[in-house]
Amino acid sequence: MDITTLTYIIVGITFALYIGIAIWSRAGSTKDFYVAGGGVSPVANGMATAADWMSAASFISMAGIISFQGYDGSVYLMGWTGGYVLLALLLAPYLRKFGKFTVPDFVGERYYSQSARFVAVLCALFVSFTYVAGQMRGVGIVFSRFLNVDINTGVIIGMCIVFFYAVLGGMKGITYTQVAQYCVLIFAYMVPAIFISIQLTGNPIPQLGLGSEMADGSGFLLDRLDGLSGELGLTAYTEGQKSWLDVFCITAALMVGTAGLPHVIVRFFTVKRVKDARSSAGLALVFIAILYTTAPSLAAFGKMNMINAVGGKEGIAYKQAPDWFKSWEKAGLIGWPDKNNDGTLQYRKGRAFTENKLEKAEGDATGPFGQVIYANEVDASSENEVYVDRDIMVLANPEIAQLPNWVIALVAAGGLAAALSTAAGLLLVISASVSHDLLKKGLMPNISEKTELVYARISAAVAVVIAGYFGINPPGFVASVVAFAFGLAASSFFPIIIMGIFSKRINKEGAIAGMITGLLFTLIYIVYYKFIDKDATLLFGISPEGIGTVGMILNFIVTFVVSLITPAPPQSVQELVENIRYPRGAGKATAH
Hints:
It is built from 22 helices and four strands. By secondary structure, the chain is an all-alpha fold. The chain folds into two domains: 3-303 and 404-581, Sodium/glucose cotransporter; 334-388, no CATH class. The strands form two sheets. The protein has a two-stranded antiparallel ribbon. The protein is globular, with a radius of gyration of 24 Å.
């Protein structure tokens, strides 16, 4: 059976499962819609948290960026993994003890201020919309290749699916859908990793295969990959080019950004007790570690196979290029400008095009060798003739390794599960921020629970449409876009949450000033260096992906200084902080 048919069957089955779960677990109250009724078991919540956490960036893009950046790409792996540990140890149990629906709810109550709540809502919307853009692009990529539709159409299909189970089921529907999605995505990730590890190294455990000798006896895998990279003029795979300061800042931004992500934090409000929050955090870490310890192996396997598939140093005639190369070329995610008109693929250091986004030329889009012709400007300063979008590496891996068609279709279903699960969680955060924090707790305090639920669903619907727009017009590849979201979360939420839990002296004036300072600084830096002047000299060599660390430090400083020179919080708030910090013997926390 061909790939397209198998993909339709497997993806269709998984979509039917998600929709069935959403119908079965539809929300009937605001508590169901916001926190799944507060009665989710630790195991189910651990799996749902893992699915919520392992987005399209983790499934689709992380191994891709490690494939192309090698050692430098490991900052994503270290930052995201370390960040979850930080979240589980420092924040999850304390926020569950507090017992509110959302992060802005915590900020509003802890800092006894509607202004602080509204600033937190603004931060939540910035972070969530930035993050969801990457998820929707991931959905479009999968659809564009495996279901023979363009990326924009794929995004629209994904919008419709998320709309159904996010708007109908709320957090209750999303939670149990994410349990199913975790099972799909982890199976889809591990099966090809195991197969390819056996092919290349003879070792069925991918994590061990990364450090093993090649099955053909040509040496250790990483040594061989370093040698191939050198032959092509690329930086050695195991060496980095980023400065230590930039590596530190990116890793720190990803870590503390994780601890400030509202869609992950809210997951710990869905369990019955503080003890359950701790248990589900630990279980989620185990579930997450399965994928995260496999990603470096899959990245190396993919890079090795890709270099060999395009002929290595000698190159390969385009007419002899494998079918997967031409399929992804038609999808607009691989490009080949034949710079020397010899009909041969030359994969070298440098850029094939000046812009990464491939746009098909008008009129006759077929070149003399049958290749797709793109309107992008060719980068004449490098010899490289092969452009490969980083986001396709995991999805293309089974094809490159010539695995069975059902494995290729399974990976497509896994990529969709990863993107849709996180997108749904983010959309719920956006919905709750508007309906609960902005309306119920602010502008319209007298609305009934039924009316609030209606507004929550309307907000989710509007958010789906906006998310779709960002998916169609993304500001970068998936992992990069998501990294910006982490930087914004690090610079806005993390300092005021951590200080709100562990310091009774921090007040509303400090929190508001700190959030605004951190968010604006980070946002302006990212917009300027990523979109306005890409060639400008970076501040201390810190890339936009890592500037959230500086924004976080500014937030800490501003919050602390402003709190010292303004009145201390009321005694009732200080007692609240004391209660949050010592969650011993806590039972059910209040929801309102």
